[in-house]
Amino acid sequence: MDNSICQVYEDEIQSLEEEIKLLTEKYEESQQESTFFSDEEILMSIKSLQREFEGESKGHESPSDLKAQLESLEKDLSFLMKFTGIQFTSHSKKTVEKTRSRTVQKHRLSGNCHSLSFQLEFQLLEMQNKESVSAAITDLSIIMKSGEDSDMRKLVSSTEEHGNLLTFFRSLSSYAEWCEHRRCTFLHFK
């Protein structure tokens, strides 16, 4: 029995020694990476970035112009939300891949249109060549709270297949508006 207990302790000691060795190697690698640049090179890079920042900040608009532009954009957004009934409640974006000519971003949107809730997940693929930039939507997934309706299921599956978000939002706006009218009518007769 003593031999088995000793063996367990020896195994534990060996695994801890291996872990210490791995951590020591990682630490040494990180130290080498941090000392890759000299202090002078780091200071020169900081000064260069400061000069670039100062040059860029001179070209920006004044705060009052930016504030006016922001207010104008907020009015436009408010008008579009009232006009279409679509209101986004959350958005997240994550860059999955980025090269010189190609960028892939994963987007997640959620919101509601009148009384219908929706959630979209898709990847936006942007390809850039010398003359232009093209974008395509891939891996589109739509989740609707009112998935019982066969017409809505057809719209969702067609949109997921073709990746045409403009058609989806136009159809959703119209469909949700008529759902709201139907709901108000049924409430009137109750």
Describe this structure in words.
This protein is of the alpha+beta class and 190 residues long. The chain folds into two domains: 1-50; 84-189, no CATH class. It is 60% helix and 26% strand. It has five helices and four strands; from the N terminus they run αααββββαα. A four-stranded antiparallel β-sheet has the order 1-2-3-4. α4 (150-162) packs antiparallel against α5 (165-189). The longest helix is centred in the N-terminal third of the chain and has 33 residues, at 2-34. The chain is extended, with a radius of gyration of 28 Å. The relative contact order is 0.07. The model has no long low-confidence stretch (mean pLDDT 80).
What descriptive keywords fit this protein?
single chain; 190 residues; alpha+beta; 2 domains; 4 strands; extended; CENP-P; coiled coil
Topology:
Layout: H1 2-34, H2 39-59, H3 63-84, E1 86-98, E2 102-113, E3 116-128, E4 133-144, H4 150-162, H5 165-189
Antiparallel strand pairs: 1-2, 2-3, 3-4
Helix pairs in contact: 4-5
